[in-house]
Write a structure and sequence with these properties.
heterodimer; A: 354 residues; mainly alpha; 15 helices; 72% helix; 1% strand; B: 336 residues; 5% strand; globular
Amino acid sequence: MALVEAARAPASAKPESWSWTDTFQQYPALWLLALFLLILPAFASNFVLIELFGWAMILGMIALSLMFLAGYGGMVSLVQMTVAGCAGYMIAIFGTSVMTDISLGWPWWVGVPLAIVIAVIFGTLSGVLSVRTEGIYTIMITLAIASAFYYFTLQNYTIFNGFSGFNAVRTPQAFGVEWRSPVPFYYLILFWTVVSYLAVVYVSRTPFGLALQGTRDNSRRMAALGFNVTAHRVAAYAFAALIAAIAGVLLVWHGGQISPGTAGVGPVIDILIIAVVGGLSRPIGAFIGAIIYVILRTFALDALVMVGLDGKRFQLLIGVGFLLIVLFSPDGILGLWARWRARYARGNARDGRA
Amino acid sequence: MSHFIGRHPIWSLVIVIGIAILLFLIFAVWPPELEQVLGRKRIFLSALLNGITLGGLYFLVASGFTLIFGLMRNVNLAHGSLYLFGGYFGYEVANGTGSWVFALVATFVVVALLGIVLQFTIFRWMEGQDLRQTLVTIAISLILADLMLWRWGGDFYQVPMPAWLGGPVEVPLVTAVRSSGELVYLSYPLVRLVILLGAVVIGVLMWLALNRTKIGMLVRAGVDDRDMLSATGIRVQLLFLLVFAFGAGLAGFTGVVGGTFQSLQQGEDIKILLASLVVVIVGGMGSITGAAVGAVLIGLADQFGTVYMPTYAVVLTFVIMVVVLALRPQGLMRGN
């Protein structure tokens, strides 16, 4: 797991008296970003709000749950997109959709919590299965679970409605707000994104989070110290599954539909790519990766056509970009940025002496 | 053998009874009550034989996967892409030259060379970094998948079969008895039987090569302790190159075989990758015997699942994996 070790989070280096305000004082860019996202609806079009930033934040949340497991726990789980897909399917089954003979039409305050609980149970059970083995096995077992879920939803018509899945899944109306309209939906996504981001930052500083990072660095030593390594790992899976499940609910409302392809092998790999390209060392990496992915996904087609290539070669672009990142900057964009700053600082220091 | 019976008397009894029931189901003429429960015997026998031949195919792919993992700790998630590329390439060669056998050989060589290029230019530089290697294989599989989609599109392809492999043969297994007392035998495609035979022969050869030759000894030593092996002065890089080439070549070779009795299309790479993953998880990483046992199990589960519970077929495969992981996380055929 050299990559995760190279991208080690700087948590343990922090002083004891860490607090929220410190984080924001340390990174003033975070304040600017928060302000920008808050006032975005004032001047951006609905397309930019929902299709770019909304989608990027949802994918970012799923990638964030992977980042939490991989960056702090050393477990690269490919099952996070599947957990989100599971939550999305449950929303479609408990709520309303075109498939009236499957969808139960329950109100949102029953369906949403139930969907999240089921998805968390699914994610935790996947964790229980995969923590029995170590290291690189995790990626194989979780990939097997993810593809089994995909083929199952594809074959099963009684619960999951097979190939076509569920269409016209409505975002509910609640507290007198029509959450389907772009601006409220944007704020809903933003709210849960911020909550999950802060939750990950917070949990990584709790005794549990520190112990989890201990199991990542040396699980045998942690076991010798009396920590229950397996329990910590399973708990990490449960926490990550919660974030992914919330994102899954938003995902199905965002698209208005869910089908096997939503959580197919392609999207599962895409989440891994997003997390790795952004950088596994810090939670913000997941969102950096997601916004790059969404921008590429939205505009690459036109850009490819413009330079005279076939627009269908999008996957090739993603693949080559991913290969380059993994080959030359194992800790992603965050790593590139850190390296650039280090070089800049060195340059400044040299100039200062001269 | 007697050791196993002594240690696990109950399990041995269960296994013996299971084999007895299986033999009865295969060779006996089914009484009408049984046909009511399980359906026609012909369907059962076809599912059984299909499962075993599919297992043969899975074994050929998974054995390369498991060898590469066992020796180099490289989870090659591009293995399915090598399979699909081999299949397409074999299709082109077989169509161009008209010789199926030549296509098999040429594909093995070309995909093995591709494997050498990958190992030599990329994986050699990130040895010991498991996750990074795996991520690189993911990137390669994405790139290969898109390049293949570019070249061959989304259509179905089938490698042309040589005439001597075509047509069904009668297998000496009784499916039913006519009212006149005449026995009806099962007829089964010859090509599948030949492929099964080929898989068995290759499996035995691989076992012999691993257990009876010097190179095999080196590979086994490398699987157990790579660092000690290189410390004894063996050029492990050469060994890695050889094993990677062999594993990749075998994947391409199997692509031609699979393209002959199944079909090739976009997405097949992921199916095969998933099958190899489950096979080696069930059988045990780095073990050829494990790959064989796992492959037959998964092949049978796949076919019986498809015949007897179509919408839950995947679940059966998955349940096998879960049970094995829960009881023996290291796989069926691997020591602790």
